[in-house]
Amino acid sequence: MKNKFIPILVLALLIIAGILFWQRQHAGGVQVQDDFGDKVVYTVGASEDQTLFKQDCADRGGEFNTCGSPCASNADFCIKVCAFTCDNIK
């Protein structure tokens, strides 16, 4: 009888984890492209309104950058393009 509930429990936990991940990536209507812990990359080469990005960055305790690097700080190689980033997240 216990074995029937294990797959249901695992499925429920996966669904909850997926929802939490999606909410974190789309918090406040802002889509996050990458989250490196100390830096968040929102979008590359955007010409859209920066208001939501700036607010999300302020909420994270970081500094908004209109031309930040889209790569992790410790990356060996990185493309040279501007990205909306939130740097120095505390």
Descriptive report:
The protein has one domain (2-87). Helices cover 38% and strands 20% of the residues. It has helices at 2-25, 51-60; strands at 34-35, 40-44, 63-68, 83-87. A 4-stranded antiparallel beta sheet has the order 1-2-4-3. The chain is elongated and about 55 Å long.
Order of helices and strands, N to C?
A: HEEHEE
User: What low-confidence regions span 5 or more consecutive residues with pLDDT below 50?
Assistant: none
Per the principal axes of the C-alpha atoms, what is the gross shape? elongated
Number of helices: 2
Count of DSSP strands: 4
* Quaternary structure type: single chain
Residue share in helix: 25-40%
Number of spatially distinct domains: 1
Major β-sheet strand ordering? 1-2-4-3
End-to-end CA span: 47 Å
Main sheet summary: 4 strands, antiparallel
Radius of gyration using CA atoms only: 17 Å
**How much of the sequence is in beta strands?**
15-25%
SS content category? alpha+beta
Task: Give the integer mean of the pLDDT values.
Answer: 83
List keywords for this structure.
90 residues; 4-stranded antiparallel beta sheet; 38% helix; elongated; alpha+beta
What's the helix and strand layout?
Blueprint: H1 2-25, E1 34-35, E2 40-44, H2 51-60, E3 63-68, E4 83-87
Antiparallel strand pairs: 1-2, 2-4, 3-4
